[in-house]
């Protein structure tokens, strides 16, 4: 599939991915009261097949004879799977209005990974952007009546919701880098189909090793009672993944991930609206600071 002629649409696909992602967080929070993080991670990958498997009719460029492609698919899929699990744990233990903004750190991790691989450092505006990302995450962690400047930093790495969100951001950053390699060897939608096919198998094997009764949990009667929101979650996840891969094929990974992180604002609003989550001003302020940082990091 040739998308070079539509390169200027990358920002549209990144914004669509942001919207689908924030909506997915809200639905995941609702389902987290009934399912474990492992079960939710598997369900979202399974139900997303409803959208992604039919695409194989048109998009089936799978160069499995190329070791680079196979490695990128396996490592990218595994990292995105673990990132999804960490994200579900974070949502289960924290607030989506906190999880969404902290994921804004993902492009910073992309820059770090690209530096480790290529040795290239960000420009001065980029370094300032990274500093604003860090400061924005600090503001988001501010609690009323805080007495020490270091308290928000401690909260960021000790609060279960924040800690698992940081782990998810790191996994997603690494996965996006591998994803770009695989896309260059095939095409974005073929890669989305391939990852959608292998991820449920990998995740089921890993979670079954973690919990011997995981099979019974997956077949719980709760699944039928929550069939509609589970399908909705899979649909949002699949649409997010497709929009992600198209955006990654049209621009740099750091650019696409930066715009997608505008999902943080959507998540803050949805968290307040649906779950009456608190500290709205601090979260919006911190998210806006981080978005300014992303602009400096990626566009200057």
From TrEMBL:
Segments crossing the lipid bilayer: 6-27, 39-57, 69-91, 98-117, 123-142, 163-183, 189-209, 280-299
Residue stretches making up the EamA domain: 9-141, 160-298
Record bears the keyword Membrane: yes
Top-level taxon of origin: Bacteria
GO cellular component, one term: membrane
Record key words, sorted: Membrane, Transmembrane, Transmembrane helix
Xref: InterPro entries: EamA_dom, EmrE-like
Protein name: Putative membrane protein
Organism: Thiorhodovibrio frisius
Organism classification: Bacteria, Pseudomonadati, Pseudomonadota, Gammaproteobacteria, Chromatiales
């Amino acid at each position: 599939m040739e998308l070079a002629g539509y390169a200027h649409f990358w920002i549209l696909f990144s914004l669509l991915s942001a919207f689908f992602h924030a909506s997915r967080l809200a639905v995941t929070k609702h389902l987290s009261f009934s399912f474990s993080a492992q079960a939710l991670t598997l369900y979202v990958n399974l139900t997303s097949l409803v959208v992604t498997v039919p695409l194989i009719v048109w998009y089936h460029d799978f160069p499995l004879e190329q070791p680079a492609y196979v490695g990128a698919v396996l490592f990218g899929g595994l990292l995105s799977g673990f990132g999804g699990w960490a994200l579900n744990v974070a949502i289960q233990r924290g607030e989506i209005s906190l999880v969404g903004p902290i994921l804004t750190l993902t492009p910073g991790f992309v820059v770090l990974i690209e530096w480790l691989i290529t040795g290239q450092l960000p420009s001065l505006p980029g370094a300032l952007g990274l500093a604003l990302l860090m400061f924005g995450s600090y503001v988001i962690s501010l609690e009323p009546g805080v007495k020490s400047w270091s308290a928000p930093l401690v909260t960021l790495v000790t609060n279960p919701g924040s800690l698992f969100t940081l782990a998810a951001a790191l996994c997603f950053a690494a996965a996006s880098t591998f994803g770009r390699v695989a896309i260059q060897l095939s095409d974005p939608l073929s890669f989305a189909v391939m990852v959608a096919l292998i991820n449920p198998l990998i995740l089921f094997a890993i979670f079954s090793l973690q919990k011997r009764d995981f099979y019974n949990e997956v077949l719980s009667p709760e699944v039928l009672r929550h069939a509609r929101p589970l399908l909705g979650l899979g649909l949002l996840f699949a649409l997010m993944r497709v929009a992600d891969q198209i955006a990654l094929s049209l621009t740099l990974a750091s650019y696409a991930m930066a715009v997608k992180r505008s999902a943080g604002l959507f998540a803050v609003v949805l968290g307040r609206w649906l779950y009456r989550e608190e500290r709205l001003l601090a979260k919006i302020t911190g998210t806006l600071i981080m978005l300014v940082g992303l602009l400096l990091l990626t566009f200057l």
